[in-house]
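seq:
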Amino acid sequence: MTELLEKAIVQLKTLTEDRQDAIAALIMKELEDDLKWKRSFSSPASQKLLADLAAEAMAEYRLGKRRS
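struct:
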C-alpha cells in the first residue's frame, strides 16, 4: 500500500460510519468502472476496432475534415 493511501485511510477512520461507507462506495464504483474499461478494450477485436477508428480519424484530419 502506498504512503498516500495509508494517509487517506487514517483520515477516513476519523469520519462517521456513514461518510466512510459513502467514500468506500465511490472508491468501489471507480474500481468497477476501471475493470469494465479494461475488459472492454482487452480483446483483440476491440483493439482492432480502436486502431481502425484511430486510422479513420487521422485520415479525416489529414484531409482537413477534423481539427485537433
